[in-house]
Design goal:
80 residues, mainly alpha
Length: 80
């Protein structure tokens, strides 16, 4: 593992992507589905990245929580 204090932002981003890919592979082997988001507008991607960073989460973790919350809200709206 590289010393994070000496890594550039791009190197940290690349290292994080490698970890996320390895995690996705492990999850796929455990029967967890994976999904790749495509065609995300640059402004939305930047906001997603900044929000996940501010929450000390990976973008994947942040997205999963956002999807879960949206589904809960949708279910409540459908029932009420």
């Amino acid at each position: 593992m590289a010393d994070l204090s000496k890594m550039t932002f791009q190197e940290k981003d690349n290292d994080k992507e490698k970890k996320e890919q390895a995690q996705a592979q492990a999850q796929a082997e455990d029967g967890v589905r994976t999904y790749t988001f495509r065609n995300i507008p640059p402004n939305l991607h930047r906001a997603w990245k900044m929000c996940s960073f501010a929450a000390s989460m990976t973008m994947e973790e942040f997205a999963l929580i956002a999807i879960q919350e949206h589904i809960k809200k949708f279910k409540v709206e459908q029932q009420g």
